[in-house]
Each structure stands twice: as structure tokens, then as C-alpha cells.
Amino acid sequence: MTVEISEPPQPTSPLTAVDVHEVVAFAAATLAREGVDVDARLSLAFVDADRIADLNRRFMGKEGPTDVLSFPIEDATPGHPPRIEAGGPPLLLGDVVIAPDVVAVNATDHGVTFEDELYLMVCHGVLHILGWDHQTDAEAQLMESREAEHLATVGRVRR
After folding, report:
1. Contact 56, 46 (CB under 8 A)
2. Please, are residues 143 and 106 in contact by the beta-carbon 8 Å criterion?
3. What are the tens digits of pLDDT across the range 43-80?
4. What element of type H or E holds 105?
């Protein structure tokens, strides 16, 4: 499984105080625990608030910055990740785009550390790539429970 950083954090980002390699390893481990094929690829991008606001407006039809956006390439449903076709090319899962500046504000608002909020957003984004959603209360409960399970593997608690 390959998790690539397609856009590294800016030098002024709060992410500079975090070991990005550990964040990448967590994303890869989350994919593995969800049953994703070892030859799959995921892109992580760390962007500023202006960039994610632009993406949010263009692709989600919402104004203003958000903390994380996911852009899946393949269709998936919870518990049924996309699969590589026999003899086919590596599976490109999609892009998870995170705005560390927005994550930092949200961490303060929720009374958690930046690192805890960052790991939650990585997990949240990865699960969206794999078809998880929170459009209904039932979906939200399932997704939040799954996030808590993944976060517990690295000693973090879901807010």
C-alpha cells in the first residue's frame, strides 16, 4: 500500500511540528485494516485554507474552508473496498486533502490537541475514500465508531 504526499505542508503550517511520516503510516495502516489491497495507492495533500475553500466551493458547492475533503476515484461501500483487477494496474483510490490551519482552529474549538484532530481528519478522509459517509444519523454513528477503532490503534481518542 502506498500513501503519497502529493502536496507537502507549507513551512508555516502547524503540521511542521508533527512527524508526517507517522501520519502517512497511520493512513496506510487504516487502509490495511479496512481490507484494501496492498498494491493500492492514496494521495494525501496538505493545503492552506484558501486552497481548500476553493476546492470546497468548486466540488462540494459550499462556501468557505473546511478541514478535510476526499475525492475517491473508485466506488466503494463500507466493508467493501475497491479491488484490483487480476493482472491490472495498481489501484488508485483517490485524494484526501487536509487544511492544517483549519484543523488547528477546530482542535482549539473542540478542546483537543492538533495531533488528535489531525489524525481524526486523516482517518475521516480515508474512510470517505472507502465509501463511508455521515449523511444520516445511523451512518454518522457507524462512521464515528469506526474512526474511534482506528484512532485507538495509535493511542488516540475520537472527540
Report:
1. no
2. no
3. 999 999 999 999 999 999 999 999 999 999 999 999 99
4. helix 100-110
